[in-house]
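Hi team,

Below is the intake form for ATP-dependent DNA ligase family profile domain-containing protein from Streptomyces carpinensis. Please confirm the fields before the structure is written into the shared record.

FORM ID: S-0412
PROTEIN: ATP-dependent DNA ligase family profile domain-containing protein
ORGANISM: Streptomyces carpinensis
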Amino acid sequence: MSTYPLAGPAQARELPPLSPMLAMIGSLPPPETEGEFAYETLWNGARTLVHLPADGTVRLVSATGLDTTSQYPELRALAGLLPAPEAVLDGEIVVLDDQGRPSVERLQQRMSLHHPAAVDRARQDLPAWMVIYDVLYLGEPVIQLPYTARRDLLDDLGLPAHGVIVPAAWPSMADEAMENSRREGFDGIVAKRFTSPYLPGRRTRDWIKIKHLAPAG
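The structure came back. Fields below:
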């Protein structure tokens, strides 16, 4: 039974209050359990839940619960990606460097801006992108579904568009994913257990953040 009651068709549905699921920092799963995970690129952006009430609006909520919609006006275009049903998506806001890789420095510059005029100028020089990698709500709560089912829902949405990135998931291929992220200039990968439900606000080993070791010197 759904933990969030759904309103009738004549009523506006209130999207559930949710907080992001968190990853543990660790190392690659051993060979005997490697096949229990999918592997995604580590983006190191600003964790954000995207609320799409299917009324032509979008609301961006930070990991600490702050409404950051006004800081990223270019991401209001997300409202047109899913005309229906209501949805809550999980991801990260990133700002890319000249090579198309996420830049922490550029993101920090963008996050520091709040005045509308400064934000408007920055959207030209430091445009924000939305990396979306999970679905929490799609007409009804889906957090109880395993990662594989939620990932299928995400892929079926057909979201990739200008300003939106849906990262690839590498099933059961830890070494390949790690090497690909190194080659592409990312900091590492996140291992996500196939069977794991989405646990709002929880940090568990169902998600493991694995970073590349800094070179000695």
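SUMMARY LINE: Residues 1-12 have pLDDT under 50 and may be disordered.

Thanks, M.
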